[in-house]
Amino acid sequence: MSWKKISLVFLLLIILVYTCFPFYWAIVSALKKAGTGTFIVEYWPSEPVLKNFIYVLNRPAFGSTFFNSFLVSTLTVLFCLLIALTASYALGRIQFKGRTVLLLGILGTSMFPQVAILSGMFELVRSLGVYNTYQGLIMSYVVFSLPFTVWILTAFIRDLPIEIEEAAMVDGANSYVILFKVFLPLMWPAMVTTGILAFIGAWNEFLFALTLTISPEVTTLPVFMASFRGESEFEIPWPNIMAASVLVTIPVLIVVLIFQNRIVKGLTAGAVKG
Amino acid sequence: MAKIQRTKLSKERIRSAWIFLTPMFICLAVVAIYPLITTINYSFTDARLGDLYNYNYVGWFHYETLFFYDEWWWVSVKNTFIFSFFSVFFETIIGVTFALILNNNMPARGIVRAAILIPWAIPTIVNAKMFQWMFNQQFGVFNEILMDLSIISEPIAFLAYPDSSMAAAIIVDVWKTTPFITLLTLAALQMIPTDIYESTRIDGVSSWKVFWNITLPLIKPTLVIAIIFRTLDALRVFDLLYVLTTNSRETASMSVYARQWLVDFMEVGQGSAASTLLFAFLTIATILYLIITKTSFDRQGVY
Q1: Is residue A163 within 8 Å of residue A183, measured between CB atoms?
Q2: Which of A103, B247, B256, B271 has the largest count of CB atoms under 10 Å?
Q3: Is A204 within 8 Å of B272 when comparing Cβ atoms?
Q4: What is the chain A residue with the closest CA to B172?
Q5: Is the Cβ–Cβ distance between B241 and B176 less than 8 Å?
Q6: How far is B162 from chain A (nearest CA, A)?
Q7: For the domain bounded by A54-271, which CATH number is listed?
Q8: Domain locations in chain A?
Q9: In sequence order, which ranges of A32-133 are alpha helices (DSSP H)?
Q10: Which CATH architecture has domain B72-300?
């Protein structure tokens, strides 16, 4: 092995430590037997135990907020994909006046600070009687998920080969036929990628969930995490909290590792060209 | 004849384009435009959280308070800018460095590229908790490492002081968002044709010069976009500071400040004014961003 190779491997190891150590440390801490009072820093757990994980899994609020997060994120993504499908086709494939402005407006909306509409959203949710309900939460999630979904999906649709569409147009197909019969079958990969990215965004959302929901029957995992106190009132039981951290993260990590190529493609499609 | 048919066809297409966009317009009008207008309206009233429907208009009162009387607002403005500047600065340097390393051909690159996604995927709340624990004074691993290396002689309570808390928050944010910069830079690097480098290899130009004069200009358009994306994102930071520094006033960002007034102090008017100012500021920043990217659209001719 040349020196260049050796130094590259060394640099790769540094990157691995940088990216993995905090999560590794959370796992190690979660496997500790003792509470915080007698905690000893060890880089490898000498007597790993699962009691912290079992403690968290037995919290009723963990199960219910996990389910809520899953339900709310899934429904938000499905709704946004449905609305974004036709919108992105129009933005990606049809030349019309004001398209660029519209596209830039959508990008702007996706960068909009959530707090800018917090009191208005609170009022809207209260007026519609959906405070502390799934519907209210999903409604607020559409604000950031929909523009994001439209933006990424448009970037993908634009890249599909033009010949398909031209052939259909020569045959005299109208836009509806082209979209639903010609494009839809080709768009599943793009929709899956966009859906995963939007799902992660919704899964990790905190501000709206914190403000628009109040009970563990409705609220989401990040809110559970933020208020999780563990088994003792007098000290902060870090091994419990780390076990909860690991459990909250694992579903996202599985999705990310399975779909890593798609995620990288989606992230770069939205930005490298946009 | 063909021309008439084409215009007829494109007219049909333009009409259907607007029909296709209608559901999105309706959704955004309800969930974005309406709440935005409501928030701006509230910023001129004395509305309180307990009763959102009975209020009086107070003119520019809240804005005057923010500008002239509330030092905490200016603390939050300062915090937001310090956080955004240092976070974006360091994550860009680290992110680009990682991308340059990963751009080399070598075994196990796939594993590292997957590992790079981990910080990006972990929910911010979890990041905040993980780092709170690592920064812990008594049992934190950072104190342990620094003590082992004899850099410090006594454990530091990193999260007990505003300045070190802010530094800690920046470290956590840099850690979380480096992958974004790395992945975008890597995508840009892989689009550079390799033969560009060949002539420099023959001439024996130093690799720093190659990076500065050849690579950097080629990845610059992507990097500029990534930096602007990240800056706009950092300017609205909420979750991290709310949890890591436990909603403290000393380290509040503009978003945290606005929510404190809205929810904790129940003063919807004052909170809405802060929200509106943040919105106005970010709108200006976004428009600047759009102007920059629009010129790059034209130059590349992609659109």
Answers
A1: no
A2: B271
A3: no
A4: A22
A5: no
A6: 20
A7: 1.10.3720.10
A8: 3-51, 54-271
A9: 51-57, 60-93, 99-110, 118-127
A10: Orthogonal Bundle (1.10)
